[in-house]
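Morning. Coffee machine broken again, so started the prediction first thing and wrote up yesterday's gels while waiting. Chain of 394 residues, entered below exactly as on the submission form.
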Amino acid sequence: MIQTSDVPETLPVVGQYVVTFLKPEMLHVYRQITSLRAYRPVVFCQKRENASAFPFSDIVLKPKPLTHPLRRFWQKQIRGQPITIYRSEARRTLAELHRAGARVLHVYFGHIGVHLLPLLEIADLPVIVSFHGADAGVVDDPARTRRMFAKCALLLARSESIGRRLVAMGCDAGKIRVHRAGVPLGQIPFAARVVPADGAWRCVQACRLIAKKGLATSLRAFAGFAREFPKSTFTIAGEGPQLEELRALAAKLGIAAQVSFAGFLSQEKLRETFATAHLFLHPSELTVGGDQEGVPNSMLEAMAAGLPVVATNHGGIPEAVASGVSGLLVDERDHGAIERAMRTLARDPARYAAMSIAARARVQEQFDLDRQTRFLERCYDEARDGFAKLQMAG
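Came back before lunch.
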């Protein structure tokens, strides 16, 4: 099913492959696709969700085949391989790309690139795959992953740390481009922060409630901080499987009355929360299974709003937060170090105020949405030019 949009037909088409368009936590993908100006995006997806939150019209909807459960059982359970599409699906998808006039295919995310390997192996157009975090850490089939790398014109990494992981997984470093998350600065009002005179610090963390976000570390650090600043509060915005576990920990630490689990917040509500907060916490950590952050989107938006950050030297976080300038970074899983960093800022009003200004400046410099989208369009150009040269040489 193809739905058309008002984007000029004269622009070259880029196929955007997103399995589910879109999950609530994928706002950054929506912003990236809808901010393209030199290319006309056509989305290819298996499932359409949250259409009112993410309106878009140029969509090719290709549901999973009825035989998907059988394929999943055969490939995953019997052969122990990652699930890939059938060759027949690959041919049909390529035909849909041709009908849409696609000149380049952009696939989100790394594990979906492996899922689409049969398509990549017959594609007669350049393919780009984006890696955003967890997809650069867990590899079910190294050989197929390397085959996927070989078939891609470019690999986009959300951070330099992800780029290094791709190289360690066997990717040609010459194919990797660091394409950072884009933040719409014009939509995020900045407010210079000052230390609360009454000691009522409002701390916040916004993320999925999963292990790599370090929420248990945040709660333990806040519990220690609140002993010195008993009027402080901590808002945790987000949903996820750890909710009850975290509620229980807050009760055990004696801070349940000061901790609010706000659930998933709309952009408007989240920005209201940021506007009245004083500190943003994000002590991310590498999980046992190898799950790692790229650069947390909520952290970037908090910085854009003027919130100093207390976080960890993890993944791409140090590429966004200059420790000692726009925030403070400590080692992973060290709640005592997080607490000490919070106290450091609470006791130094001048340093705290300077970090607020520096946080916004850092996002303006490195993560502006318009600048990052223009870079993405240049990556599309580069992939097309390189692919054309290979075709001529071959």
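The chain has a mean pLDDT of 92. Going to sketch it on the whiteboard this afternoon.
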